[in-house]
Amino acid sequence: QTEVFDPGSTDFHTIINKLKKIRPPVVFLASHYRESALFLKQAKEVEFNSIFIGGDGNFAPDLIKLSGGAAEGMYVSNLHWDPSSKKPIIANFVKSFKDTFHQEPEVYAAAGYDCLCVVAKAIEMGGYTSEGIKNALYKIKDFQGVTGTITFDKWGEVSGRYDIFQVRNGQFIKLKR
Which residues in the chain show pLDDT less than 70? Predict the structure, then answer.
């Protein structure tokens, strides 16, 4: 069964009650952490228990904070992004981000940073024209970013690695493969 809500929604009781009646073993939350946190909190209030999973838009410390503990047990996929990594490129990014914004970087901050760095590299390689940037992107191989190694294939797609995390004891714990 598919249920839909608009971004920015805050009341999920109708959807939760529909789902509670059919008792699905798994619920996929295709939303960002703000909506997911409220959904989980409201589900917990009415004792709707299921396995909850979500994508990288949920991989944010605020999911855990805003859910009031209701995110416990949730599974989340995410780009291979580990903000606790001791690799210098990642540790330096995290430190600079915290120093500048006074909060932990989320996955989109890391992906956005990598995007800007890759575009800068493409401009350096191909010049500051749309054609030059496009052609240079196809040539970028094994670029070391904060989200991992970035390589473009012949169609301009980036293949990346994803990890699965579970919220345990108020933290995202990476599951072993």
Answer: none
Quote the distance between the C-alpha of residue 105 and its chain's center: 11
In 3D space, the residue among 105, 13, 4 whose CA is nearest the CA of residue 62 turns out to be: 105
Rounded Cα distance, 138 and 144, in Å: 16
In the block, which residue shows the tokens 């052609």? 135
Cα-based torsion angle of the residue sequence 66, 67, 68, 73 in order, rounded to the nearest 10 degrees: -140
Predicted pLDDT at 155: 83
Pairwise CA distance, residues 120 & 44, whole Å: 45
Within a 10 A sphere around the Cβ of 149, how many other Cβ atoms?
Answer: 14
Buried b or exposed e, range 9-21, using 16+ CB within 10 angstroms:
eeebeebbeebee
**pLDDT tens per residue, range 129-149:** 999 999 999 999 999 999 988
**In whole angstroms, what is the distance from residue 175 CA to residue 78 CA?**
12
| pLDDT score at 152 | 87
